[in-house]
Structures are given as structure tokens and as C-alpha cells.
Design brief:
The chain is built from 16 helices and eight strands. By secondary structure, it is of the alpha+beta class. The protein folds into three domains: about 5-60; about 80-160, Tyrosine recombinase, N-terminal domain (DNA polymerase, domain 1), CATH 1.10.150.130; about 170-360, hpI Integrase, Chain A (Orthogonal Bundle), CATH 1.10.443. Helix 7 (about 180-190) runs antiparallel to helix 8 and helix 8 (about 195-205) crosses helix 13.
Length: about 375
């Protein structure tokens, strides 16, 4: 492809332009760059010449590149949930912050500064849903030979959650202090409708996510073994409500606590195994957003001096109480469905009380163990 170039000197630098005839449309098209030095002019021209040989336009901006590849970067994502969240992050945060920058000019430091700005305004989950699509789009740029390495890959680790280690006790701060406080909260929600009270009790005492509570069926309550099985999620996704596996993609058994039994008895009475365990006032699925809006959650928890408590804090509550009860760490990991036991450790008490309990149990065992008598003991070493 033959290129024509021209340069115009300006007070703040140079205006460099490259033009060519599109072989498909036979129309005359071009690209313009505003640069500060003659060296940058030559760099721009060289990049455009290289693009005619490789087909990779190294001068393209992130916004233009994202438009060019369409939804190719979404390959392998769940279209009902993850893909939609990532697409929102790309449109609302990534492109407004970095879309004007050429893909080849995006650096790790530039991405770091962007993440720092996001952390001052957005939650960790929102940041994750913004960085993940950036990583994926730049992965495509690597495949297209526009860049050689992805500068977002390792800068995103702290927010993508794959390499984050929760320190002991880190997650306890989000939990309710005791059962009396939980019942007080449930009663306040029940004044709006009983289903909201039941949602609070189920989420806390099963240490379950709101979407998992919404997915419970009557048959998931195993009265014989006093277990409730967490088998699915039910939540709003792209195109409507979605039913899918749990986050860990496996069924989880949760012990049935005494405080939850009356709630389960009432919710399962005269129902079939495939019936939903809990539904809202009008028979619809109770999402965490529904509970928030219907109960005016923020005002309600503030009135109970629980400011800052989120619906997901109910799951943290149950997990914290189970950890304090002395449930073995590997069992707690199974109950919560964590892939990494490091995440589960975030619910342990930060002091050494669990070690003291371990010592007590060991001492109790040793005190009961019969002393062994060896009549064949010798004074000297055995050969």
C-alpha cells in the first residue's frame, strides 16, 4: 500500500499526516498525529509504514481499537453475568480514562495511576470489573502485534483478587457482633415484610450470598442430617433472571444451626421439594437489590447503629461466628466454598485463642491416654 506523507509546523510542535487509498473501498483515507518533535514525526511515519506490512496499526487509540475488535475480548466469559459487568467497566471507566491514549503508548505506570484514581472513588469489586476488561483488550492487542507485552497484566493483581492474601481477622470487621443483634435486624426488616426478615436470617446463619439464598429450594433442606445444601445461584443477569451453579461450581453442605430451625420449618411446611424456599411479597425472586430498596437498607441499619453493614456482611457474619465456634479451618472452607484456604483464614480471630484451644484439646487427650509400660526396657541402646 502506497503512503503519502506531509508535515505542518505549528507553535506547539508538528502536525503529521499520512494518507492512502483503502484497497477495499478505494476511498482516500488518512491518519493525523500531533507531535512535539521532528523525531516523533519520523516515528509516526515509520509506524504507519510498518502497519502497511503487518496490518497492525500501532498508532490506534484504545477507544478505536476496542471498537475495531468488538466483543472478541469477551471470549470465554459468562454472557449472562461477567461479560455484562466487564463491558460496563470498559465503557464507563476504562475508555473515559485511557481511551484517548494510543495502545502502544499505554504504560504500566499510566495504568497504576488510573487504578489509584479509581480506588479513591469506587469499591474493590467495581475496580476489578474495570481492570479485567482492560487486561483482556490489551491481550488482544498483543495477539494483533500492536504491543509486545500487556502492561496491565501484573499491575492488576491486587484488584483481580487472584493473588490477594487475606490476613487473619481481616473479614471479621464486616460481621454483626452477636445473635441478638441479628434478630433485631431481622425484626426491623420483617416490619416491611416477613420475607425480608427470612432473607436476613438465611444469609447470616447459612453464611450464604444473597443470590444463593434466592436459589434455595425446599429439597435443599436435609432434615435427617440437619444440613442445608447450597446448590445454585438465582440473580438478575443480562436478559433477565439467571439460574446457575454456585460461585465455586460445587454444592456446599452447611450445618443447620438451632436459631435457623424455626425459620426453615415455617418455609418448608406443606411445600414440595422443587418449590422455592423463599420468595418476596409478590412471589418474585428476592435479590440483594430488592432487599436494599424495599427495606431502605442504609437508613434501616443506620437507625440500628449498624452503619456500613451491607447485605454481603450477613455472609461475613455467619462465617465469623462459625470460625469463633472452633469449626476446623478445612471444614469452614468447605462450608463457605472458598477456592483458597487463605481467604477462609480471614475469618479467624487475629489473636492466638485458636492456638490456646488446640492446646487445651491436646492436653485433654493426653491426660486420658493410658501410660504405656514397657517391661522389656533396657538400660543400653538396642542393636
Amino acid at each position: 500500500m502506497k503512503l503519502t506523507t506531509d508535515v505542518e509546523r505549528r507553535t506547539d510542535g508538528f502536525r503529521a499526516r499520512v494518507r492512502w487509498t483503502d484497497p477495499s473501498t478505494h476511498k482516500r483515507v488518512g491518519r493525523v498525529a500531533h507531535v512535539r518533535s521532528s523525531e516523533e514525526v519520523e516515528e509516526f511515519f515509520e509506524q504507519m509504514r510498518a502497519a502497511t506490512e503487518t496490518g497492525a496499526d500501532t498508532t490506534i487509540t484504545l477507544t478505536d481499537y476496542a471498537a475495531t475488535i468488538g466483543d472478541r475480548w469477551q471470549r470465554g466469559l459468562d454472557p449472562t453475568s461477567t461479560a455484562d459487568l466487564y463491558d460496563t467497566g470498559l465503557r464507563l471507566r476504562v475508555l473515559p480514562a485511557l481511551g484517548h491514549v494510543r495502545v502502544a503508548k499505554i504504560t504500566a505506570g499510566m495504568i497504576d495511576r488510573t487504578i489509584d484514581a479509581w480506588e479513591a472513588e469506587h469499591s474493590a469489586s467495581t475496580i476489578k470489573n474495570s481492570i479485567a476488561p482492560l487486561v483482556r483488550v490489551l491481550d488482544e492487542a498483543v495477539r494483533d502485534d500492536i504491543i509486545s507485552i500487556n502492561p496491565a497484566k501484573h499491575r492488576a493483581r491486587r484488584n483481580l483478587g487472584k493473588h490477594v492474601t487475606h490476613t487473619t481477622g481481616a473479614l471479621r470487621q464486616y460481621a454483626l457482633p452477636d445473635l441478638a443483634t441479628l434478630r433485631k435486624l431481622a425484626t426491623a426488616c420483617g416490619e416491611v415484610h416477613q420475607s425480608y426478615s427470612d432473607h436476613v436470617m438465611l444469609a447470616a446463619l447459612l453464611a450464604a450470598r444473597g443470590s444463593e439464598v434466592a436459589g434455595l429450594k425446599v429439597g435443599d433442606v436435609d432434615w435427617e442430617n440437619h444440613i442445608v445444601w447450597i446448590r445454585r445461584q438465582h440473580y438478575p443477569g443480562k436478559g433477565g433472571l439467571v439460574i446457575k451453579q454456585t460461585k465455586g461450581r460445587r454444592d456446599r453442605p452447611v450445618p443447620m444451626l438451632d436459631a435457623l430451625e424455626p425459620v426453615l420449618e415455617r418455609l418448608t411446611k406443606d411445600k414440595k421439594p422443587d418449590d422455592p424456599l423463599l420468595r418476596g411479597p409478590r412471589g418474585g425472586v428476592l435479590t440483594t437489590a430488592t432487599v436494599r430498596d424495599a427495606t431502605r437498607w442504609d437508613d434501616l441499619v443506620a437507625g440500628l447503629n449498624l452503619t456500613g453493614l451491607t447485605r454481603h456482611g450477613l455472609r461475613h457474619t455467619g462465617a465469623t461466628w462459625m470460625a469463633d465456634a472452633g469449626i476446623a479451618l478445612h471444614v469452614l472452607q468447605e462450608i463457605l466454598g472458598h477456592q483458597s484456604i487463605e481467604t477462609t483464614k480471614g475469618y479467624l480471630h487475629p489473636d492466638h485463642r485458636h492456638l490456646a484451644e488446640a492446646a487445651r484439646q491436646a492436653n485433654q487427650f493426653l491426660s486420658k491416654a493410658p501410660q504405656r509400660k514397657d517391661s522389656s526396657r533396657r538400660d543400653g541402646p538396642r542393636l
